[in-house]
Amino acid sequence: MRKLTKFFGTISVLCLIGLVKPIAAETVDIVELTKNAGYEVNPDDKPKSSIVVDAYTGRILWQDNIDEERDPASISKVLTVYLVMEAIQKGELSLSQKITATKEDEAISNIYAISNNKIIEGVEYPIEELIKMTLVPSSNAATIMLANTLDKDSAAFIGKMNAKAKELGMNHTTFNNASGAVAELFQGYYQPEGYDASKPNQTTARDLAILAMDLMNHYPQVLQYTNSAVVKTMEGTPYEEKFDTYNYSLPGAKYGIEGVNGLKTGSSGYGAFNYIATYEKDQMKLVEVVLGVGDWYNQAGEMIRHTFGNAILNYVLEHFSFQTILPAGEHNFDGHKITTNQPLQMIVENGKKPEWEVANKRVSIDLPGVFLKENQKNPSVEVVAESGFADLPKEPEKRQQTLQVYIIQNAFAFAVIIGGSILFLLVLFGESRAKKRRSHKRK
């Protein structure tokens, strides 16, 4: 009897959780999903963690093990580029500013064990070209040149990286180097004091999504360097180089998807194969992070990561779309009229029509969700005019209707809850009566 009581109690709780759990976080078998998408994959190669987010709001549309700490490898370079773009915005640097390569820079570019391009001592490299070299061929030499431009003290620069990560809300991220390659691989040419030269950087899929989303929204010009399958650097000079992208999800690459326009790949013995994809098409604006695919010793992982990532991305694109919840203009609200100058829009699961609510002279979308950060929320637009009452409500007045609609949409779950609860109480009542009978017999 106790087991039965526990069972129905558990069922009731799970159903309640199901009502507030967003569809965005539902669990899907990644291997089966990828096979159904037409890719032949080994279950042992599946990602250790993955996430897709709405880059407008930070709302999570797909998640799997997103808070496991992992080595991002060369994806680390994205934060170095972020700091460069921030300095450019502040007027401290410019894209055309030239950096003269040193003997040490050239030596780093010749280290076989780490990804690079050819850097020549004495040549002046515009910062814009160094950004391309950092993001596409994943040049460690170019990355260190950028880092040294911002701060000649390599340890101080890493301190800036960690401070920026904390500021952005990357709460499970620690940097020990500027490029993603452990410092001991630089043969003494890069030695950040106070940092373990053998220790890789650590982060999570969630934290990298936070970084990529912020970069995408504040420095979208970076994507012009990452949106092509083939990139040339120092074009028209004796030092021109041509690189094929490692991001095979870009249009024109082996596993290209229209709409993918960035961002960065990374791989290492510690972290296996990783990448961040950014996507913009049909008003959909997404960030995808895929970490820990395959085995470093099987370099096919460079391709395999994109089969899993593409399957996940296409799944999201099939199930979600950018929708107008409330067009701009005049609307009736609880018998009154309100006017908005902007449409209320959001990426929403197909087939769902979220309610909207009014409070504090704003119209917002009333839809439960899971976000990257606590301070993120559904979009809202300003009410520019209202008639029929002096002040709009200070608290949302649409929630009761929303709850009613939600109950109707989830009638089965509510029926299970109610039925389970009644049965739960009956079982408890029966146990209580049985105890009383036993007690009378003992007397």
TrEMBL record:
Residues 1-25 form the signal peptide. InterPro entries: Beta-lactam/transpept-like (IPR012338), Beta-lactam_class-A (IPR000871), Pen-bd_prot4_C_dom_sf (IPR037091), Peptidase_S11 (IPR018044), Peptidase_S11_N (IPR001967). The chain crosses the membrane at residues 406-429. It comes from the Bacteria. Pfam families: Peptidase_S11 (PF00768). The active site is at residues 74, 77, 138. Substrate binds at residue 264. Keywords: Cell shape, Cell wall biogenesis/degradation, Hydrolase, Membrane, Peptidoglycan synthesis, Signal, Transmembrane, Transmembrane helix. GO terms for molecular function: beta-lactamase activity; serine-type D-Ala-D-Ala carboxypeptidase activity. PANTHER family: BETA-LACTAMASE, SLR0121 PROTEIN. Belongs to the peptidase S11 family. This is Peptidase S11 D-alanyl-D-alanine carboxypeptidase A N-terminal domain-containing protein.
